[in-house]
């Protein structure tokens, strides 16, 4: 018995290490990445006291005028359905009525395109074709002012999402002049069935620094990528942002919420970002100035199925939300302490018949189906100061068995006055280096000796 237990533990250990090695590849695509630092760093070592001190000291020089930028965040469990070529994204993205400065979109469940067999889960299979289709639809919706009939081949080549390579600020400005008021993809990353893509208005590109991605698998054996998160970090001027895109454990049985809580805790604990060139950037999720978490959280409602369906039919959202698992677990302090969510004034987003307004199990003509009660599985929450939510709503596309959700935030950004005057992020980065060196010069240099006798920070 002991031998079997050891073999299982060893298998889990090997799978865990292997998956993290696969997820740790720099297989991230972007239009104009402007950082040469390592994009992925999935070490599990915790931040030392010196790292935390550097983080605190780095925020002391965050001074100057406050700017405001609008951020659109969207989450959609697409149910394994590939997007049709004529899918209209503009209404959901509000590009005509209320365009944002930054778009962060998360998609989940590519089962029909990425079969969830053991090989694909373990290897962290990535399907660039389906990701490119979603990115093409997003690009067309955000940049619809560009004529589709003018130099289609050249425009298509210019907008191709390239592997990471260096681009100078000069090339960014030149590209921006050619295509004013357009959006470019700064990060796009898939882990099995989880996909996040980040788009920024191109005149903000020179002020985006230190992009980094961290993947955490929470699925089979507690480490595989069929469940888990893909998180993105970057700095806009002097404000650090983190966006967590996750798919938590499923299940409608009593006690399944504990698995979801455990997934969230794992993501918060194991997510690590690169320290940056000065080693003073936040590494953990909650260490960032502003954090937004989006995804299929999978939390259900603590009520009998028949009662839930009856209340949904009557649109008694307040009564249902009183028994919502996520809100209940948060109130009990079991998960997401300190996080906030906007007021929900829309119908549950799960589970529908495809291309229908009827919830699964409510069609009397379809007998023998497993009934699943409606629930607000798809959520967007946030953490930190300086974020104000202007909208929290859902879309009505029937493409999937889930409805997409969106949130629009206004983020207060710390912009150094000299950076604004010169119109370049170079001065801000020079100030950061200057202050950092001055502080180091005035401090006593201390080193710790580990058990091996080698010096470490």
From TrEMBL:
The keyword Hydrolase applies. SUPFAM superfamilies: DNase I-like. It comes from the Eukaryota. InterPro entries: Endo/exonu/phosph_ase_sf (IPR036691), IP5P_plant (IPR045849), IPPc (IPR000300). GO terms for biological process: phosphatidylinositol dephosphorylation. Pfam families: Exo_endo_phos2. GO terms for molecular function: inositol-polyphosphate 5-phosphatase activity; phosphatidylinositol-3,4,5-trisphosphate 5-phosphatase activity; phosphatidylinositol-4,5-bisphosphate 5-phosphatase activity. Belongs to the inositol polyphosphate 5-phosphatase family. Residues 67-417 form the Inositol polyphosphate-related phosphatase domain. It comes from Populus alba. This is Inositol polyphosphate-related phosphatase domain-containing protein. Keywords: Hydrolase.
């Amino acid at each position: 018995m002991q031998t079997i237990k050891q073999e299982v533990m060893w298998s889990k250990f090997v799978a865990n290490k292997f998956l993290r090695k696969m997820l740790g590849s720099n297989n991230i695509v972007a239009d104009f990445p402007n950082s040469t630092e390592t994009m992925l760093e999935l070490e599990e070592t915790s931040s030392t006291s010196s790292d935390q001190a550097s983080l605190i000291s780095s925020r002391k020089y965050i001074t100057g005028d406050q700017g405001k930028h609008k951020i659109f965040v969207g989450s959609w469990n697409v149910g394994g359905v590939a997007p049709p070529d004529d899918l209209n994204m503009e209404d959901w993205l509000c590009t005509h009525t209320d365009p944002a400065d930054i778009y962060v979109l998360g998609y989940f469940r590519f089962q029909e395109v990425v079969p969830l067999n053991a090989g694909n889960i373990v290897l962290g299979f990535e399907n660039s074709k389906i990701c490119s289709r979603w990115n093409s639809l997003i690009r067309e919706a955000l940049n619809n002012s560009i004529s589709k009939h003018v130099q289609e081949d050249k425009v298509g080549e210019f907008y191709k999402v390239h592997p990471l390579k260096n681009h100078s600020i000069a090339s960014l400005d030149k590209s921006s002049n050619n295509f004013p008021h357009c959006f470019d993809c700064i990060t796009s990353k898939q882990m099995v069935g989880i996909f996040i893509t980040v788009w920024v208005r191109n005149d903000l590109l020179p002020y985006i620094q230190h992009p980094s991605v961290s993947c955490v698998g929470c699925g089979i054996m507690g480490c595989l990528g069929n469940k888990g998160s893909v998180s993105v970090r970057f700095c806009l001027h002097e404000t650090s942002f983190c966006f967590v895109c996750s798919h938590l454990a499923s299940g409608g049985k009593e006690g399944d919420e504990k698995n979801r809580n455990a997934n969230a805790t794992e993501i918060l604990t194991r997510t690590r970002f690169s320290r940056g060139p000065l080693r003073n950037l936040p590494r953990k999720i909650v260490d960032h100035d502003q954090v937004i978490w989006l995804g299929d959280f999978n939390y259900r409602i603590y009520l009998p199925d028949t009662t839930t369906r009856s209340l949904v039919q009557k649109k008694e959202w307040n009564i249902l939300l009183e028994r919502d698992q996520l809100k209940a677990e948060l109130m009990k302090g079991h998960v997401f302490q300190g996080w906030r969510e906007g007021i929900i004034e829309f119908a549950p987003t799960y589970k529908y018949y495809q291309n229908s307004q009827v919830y699964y199990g409510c069609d009397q003509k379809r007998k023998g189906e497993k009934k699943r009660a409606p629930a607000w599985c798809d959520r967007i929450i946030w953490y930190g100061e300086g974020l104000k939510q202007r909208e929290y709503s859902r879309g009505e596309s029937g493409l999937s068995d889930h409805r997409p959700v969106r949130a629009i935030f206004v983020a207060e950004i710390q912009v150094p006055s000299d950076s604004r005057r010169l119109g370049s992020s170079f001065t801000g980065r020079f100030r950061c280096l200057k202050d950092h060196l001055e502080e180091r010069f005035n401090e006593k240099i201390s080193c710790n000796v580990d058990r091996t006798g080698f010096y470490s920070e």
